[in-house]
Structures are given as C-alpha cells and as structure tokens.
Write a structure and sequence with these properties.
This protein is an alpha/beta fold and 78 residues long. It contains 3 helices and 3 strands, in the order E-H-E-H-E-H.
C-alpha cells in the first residue's frame, strides 16, 4: 500500500457518513468502518456510484482486536 487512506469510524450513518462522503468527494480513498456492515456497505456504494474509491470494514473501536483486524483489512484490500 503506497497511498493514503482515510479511515472513518462510524461511517455508516450520521456525521461519520457525511465525513466519508465529503472525503471521497475530495478524491480521497476512504475506508468506511462501522459496527453495522450493511450501513458501511451503503456508504461505500454511494461513494463508488459517485466515482470514488472506498472499502467497507466492520469494526468495533472499543475492541483492540477488531481495530487491528479492520486496519489489516484496509492494508490488504487497498
């Protein structure tokens, strides 16, 4: 991985979703992290439909193993 990626926690809805969409509109690559996989996927779908690049990851920021796994998924996929 040689590019910068914005990881947006809580990116499936609300303020997190709006931040992810704004970053993608500014041509950033975005990893949308959320406890709710379907909501993260919905945000990624909106980003990719607009021509952006994004990845949905399921992550619980209160669990260090979950964060570790999520960040490794970002590195492996993007």
């Amino acid at each position: 991985m040689t590019q910068r990626v914005a990881v947006v926690t809580g990116g499936g809805r609300g303020i997190g979703r709006q931040i992810a969409l704004a970053l993608a509109a500014d041509e950033r690559v975005v990893a949308v992290a959320d406890l709710r996989a379907t909501e993260a996927a919905d945000t990624v779908e909106a980003i990719t439909a607009a021509g952006g690049r994004a990845l949905a990851i399921t992550m619980d920021v209160t669990n260090s193993d979950s964060v570790h796994q999520g960040l490794h998924a970002v590195i492996d996929e993007l």
